[in-house]
């Protein structure tokens, strides 16, 4: 498991995060939710090992080993991060962007091995047709799939025997995607978690996406935990109100085995009938 314990971050005298616990389990999807400024992306960055400045507190471990004690090359094979947005300074073709996943072992692989690995993940993500396209010319959804292919290649290249658990961290992966692409992307990430035993940590804003795909939820507000646990237990009317300051209606989904959440106008709390806890 990847585990954050009593994680905190204080910047310029302000608590960005305070005493946050978060666990990511192989084969399960953990989703972090909260209002803008709640500390969601900061938590993900801390768990990725990307926040090392003073003011950070607590500990992050990967399968029982402190993250700071894991060499960079080994860490690259244990966790991969898909950021909110990636700006490329050069119009690299898609195949070369995916090949960046081989970076840490670039000189230990032959050109033929790298090409074969890239082809495998282009096919896995159904983007082989894009391999010669310039990355900046792709749609948002296509770019996210390319970057996900790079992340998966990174995890497999650095951990070829799958001796260690692997973790995929997704920071607002559905940002700027249309509705269809949002569901396609999260569904794909979830299926990969199940099929490949990946532990997935994702920051999302859409309650219904979380209800449909998350195994576990962590709700944050003002840098503190509102609730954490299995989705079936913590996705409740009361917790949604406490986290987002909006009322809602929670009903059985007509198509899937999950709840359907309808949010109501802000400023009018507690007007919805209590159809769910």
From TrEMBL:
It comes from Neolewinella aurantiaca. The keyword Transport applies. Keywords: ATP-binding, Nucleotide-binding, Translocase, Transport. Part of the ABC transporter complex HmuTUV involved in hemin import. Responsible for energy coupling to the transport system. SMART domains: AAA. This is Heme ABC transporter ATP-binding protein. The keyword Kinase does not apply. It holds the Pfam family ABC_tran. InterPro entries: AAA+_ATPase, ABC_transporter-like_ATP-bd, ABC_transporter-like_CS, P-loop_NTPase. GO terms for molecular function: ATP binding; ATP hydrolysis activity. Residues 2-247 form the ABC transporter domain. It comes from the Bacteria.
